[in-house]
Specification:
The complex is a heterodimer of chains A (379) and B (167). Chain A is an alpha+beta fold and 379 residues long. Helix content of chain A is 34%, strand content 18%. In chain A, the strands form 6 sheets. In chain A, strands 8, 9, 10, 11, 16 and 17 form a 6-stranded mixed sheet that branches. In chain A, helix 8 (275-284) crosses helix 10. The longest helix of chain A is centred in the middle third of the chain and has 19 residues, at 198-216. Chain B has 167 residues and is α+β, with helices and mostly antiparallel strands. Chain B is globular and about 45 Å long. Classes of the chains: A alpha+beta (379), B alpha+beta (167). The A-B interface holds A 1-3, 26, 102-103, 106, 109-116, 134-136, 293, 296-297, 329, 331, 338, 345-346, 349-350, 353-359, 378-379 and B 1-6, 43-46, 81, 104, 106-108, 110, 112-113, 115-120, 122-123, 126, 137, 139. Chain B: One of its GO terms (molecular function) is actin binding. Chain B: Residues 4-154 form the ADF-H domain. Chain B: Keywords: Actin-binding.
Chain lengths: 379, 167
């Protein structure tokens, strides 16, 4: 289908991962962490500092991306996020001939057959509600909350601290013994490990936490209740160093913070909105006539929404917060691929259409028109 | 955000015909007026065109078509997207009315590619349909089967009958 062979790349850059691939394909070829490992060879041979350095000043910089490369322990390798400076870098450093920017919320809505709807995107750093009407984002209705994947990770880290369990990433472990549930771990450290930076070590620890997070946590289908939680079936989890435990009430307690931040640890002077409120506030900021259209198409996307029980709980919260006459429908793709990649897939389809080829912004247009031409051509 | 897909002249012509209620010259012309019609995206993905034979003519009513709304619902493909124009006849307590409704049909079971293309091209076709008062985004049969939903869209709680049948 379609007429020409289009050579276009599609990037969906998030704070946790980058989804990249070729236009026309139904899935991104690359899905890798939004992290660069940078080794800095200083001329004077001194050890580099751990904060993000000014890349311009150093010589002999080597960059490592993608999971396989990143997880090899190397001396002096820092981790940083490439999220700043995007467009300028693309045109000036990489000399690309043309580009186009799409709002990922619009792409996700379109990919679900909707031109009007409320897109709820819960990823690593933020949970955001974006109202889309007739294919356009209603900027004034966007509501953002920092309670998302990274917040969950922080709570998991605190849980392990309370249990006095140390997080030891796999790269350090030479061998481990099998121990009883809840007993201290017994393991041997690898002998010849390079001097790794703190930023890299923390990154590797985060990977361990994130695996625990994805495997163990579950959102309660109604507001957290200690007695109900105590009856919860337990899940057994083993850390890389051999420490293993059965987790019960914590499975529900930790993610409860997403929906009801009032009791969550580490939130001072609480003005945070739970997921349900993020949605209702966003819809509430839009014209009353379009609200039924928004509640009737709530598109749920983002990796953090894959926590078991997330959508059921959200459905319940929204039904309680909206008038009984309000038709409410949540669209949550069943496959992980679609839930994490819906915006990318939408972009891939759009970029491969023959009719879309007239829409690109060429390098020349960008040079002449600057940022204004981008704002105009990519609403 | 648009896909660049274009609307053909025949589509615009059909809309203009349906929009205007001409003082009909003869019965023959009246019978040929469209009650409902579907539009689809051409196979080469470049244009929005008429969906062949997917239409209900006024002349069909009472003969081949008994319940125009149900007949319209049956015309929609269960696994693919479409745009449609439906000329709804309804009554409120005060008066009898006819209004054109623009419908964007994107069922959950349609392929993602289809949903993406139809959703991103909807702006193009809607812009050509000037003056449409009612637009309806429908994503499943359960949204359509109940005539109440359409009645509410047309006039809220004041609508007492639709296509001659009471609500």
């Amino acid at each position: 289908m379609g007429t020409f062979k289009v050579g276009a790349l599609v990037f969906d850059i998030g704070s946790y991962s980058v989804r990249a691939g070729y236009a026309g394909e139904d899935c991104p070829k690359a899905d890798f962490p939004t992290v660069i490992g940078v080794t800095l060879d200083r001329e004077d041979g001194s050890t580099p500092m751990e904060t993000d350095g000014d890349k311009g000043k150093q010589s002999g910089t080597t960059y490592y991306i993608d999971t396989n490369q990143l997880r090899v322990p190397r001396e002096n390798m820092e981790v940083m996020s490439p999220l700043k400076n995007g467009m300028k870098l693309m045109f000036e450093h990489y000399n690309i001939p043309a580009f186009f920017l799409c709002k990922s919320a619009v792409l996700s809505a379109f990919a679900n057959g909707r031109s009007t709807g409320l897109v709820l995107d819960s990823g690593a750093t933020h949970t955001t509600a974006i109202p889309v009407h007739d294919g356009y984002v209603l900027q004034q209705g966007i509501v953002k909350s920092p309670l998302a994947g990274d917040f969950m990770s922080m709570q998991c880290r605190e849980l392990f601290q309370e249990l006095s369990v140390e997080i030891i990433p796999p790269y350090m472990i030479a061998s481990k013994d099998s121990v009883r549930e809840g007993s201290p771990a017994s393991w041997k450290k690898k002998e010849k490990l390079p001097q790794v930076t703190r930023s890299w070590h923390n990154y590797m620890c985060n990977c361990v936490i994130q695996d625990f997070q994805a495997s163990v946590l579950q959102v309660s289908d109604s507001p957290y209740d200690e007695q109900v939680a105590a009856q919860m079936p337990t899940v057994h989890y083993e850390l890389p160093n051999g420490y293993n435990c059965d987790f019960g009430a914590e499975r529900l307690k930790i993610p409860e913070g997403l929906f009801d931040p009032s009791n969550a640890k580490g939130l001072s002077g609480n003005t945070m909105l739970g997921v349900g409120h993020v949605v209702t506030t966003s819809v509430g900021m839009c014209d009353i006539d379009i609200r039924p259209g928004l509640y009737g198409s709530v598109v749920v996307t983002g990796g953090n929404t894959l926590i078991q029980g997330f959508t059921d709980r959200l459905n319940r919260e929204l039904s309680q917060k909206t008038p009984p006459s309000m038709r409410l429908k949540l669209i949550a793709n069943n496959t992980t691929v679609e839930r994490r990649f819906s915006a990318w897939i939408g972009g891939s389809i759009l970029a491969s259409l023959g009719t879309f080829q007239q829409m690109w912004i060429s390098k020349q247009e960008y040079e002449e028109g600057g940022k204004q031409c981008v704002d105009r051509k990519c609403p | 955000m648009a896909s660049g897909v274009k609307v053909t002249d025949e589509v615009i012509a059909v809309f203009n015909d349906m929009k205007v209620r001409k003082a009909q010259a003869n019965e023959d012309e009246k019978r040929k007026r469209k009650k409902a019609i579907l539009f689809c995206i051409s196979k080469d993905l470049k244009n929005i065109v008429l969906d062949e034979d997917k239409e209900i003519l006024l002349g069909d009513l009472g003969t081949t078509v008994q319940d125009p709304y149900q007949h319209f619902v049956k015309m929609l493909p269960p696994d693919d997207c479409r745009y449609a124009l439906y000329d709804a006849t309804y009554e409120t307590k005060e008066t009898k009315k006819e209004d054109l409704v623009f419908i964007f049909w994107a069922p959950e079971s349609a392929p993602l590619k289809s949903k993406m293309i139809y959703a991103s091209s909807k702006d193009a076709i809607k812009r050509k349909f000037e003056g449409i008062k009612h637009e309806w985004q429908v994503n499943g049969l359960e949204d359509l089967k109940d005539r109440h939903t359409l009645a509410e869209k047309l006039g809220g709680s004041s609508v007492v009958s639709l296509e001659g049948s009471p609500i």
